[in-house]
Amino acid sequence: AMEGYAGALMQHGDYSTALPYLERLVKADSKRVRAWKDLIVAKQYTSGAQAALDTIGSIPPAVVSKLSGDLEYLAALTGIEQRAGRMADARRTFAQASTLAEKTRTALPPYLEMQLGSLYLNFGDAKYAVKHYRAAIQSVPANLDAWEGFLLASNRAKVSGPALKTLEALPVSVHEAAQARPGFLRAVAALEASVGSLTSAEKLLNRAQVIETADGRDPSFYTQLQLAQLWLEQGKGQQAAARFAELSASYPENEEVWKGLV
Question: What pTM was estimated for this model as a whole?
Answer without folding.
Answer: 0.86
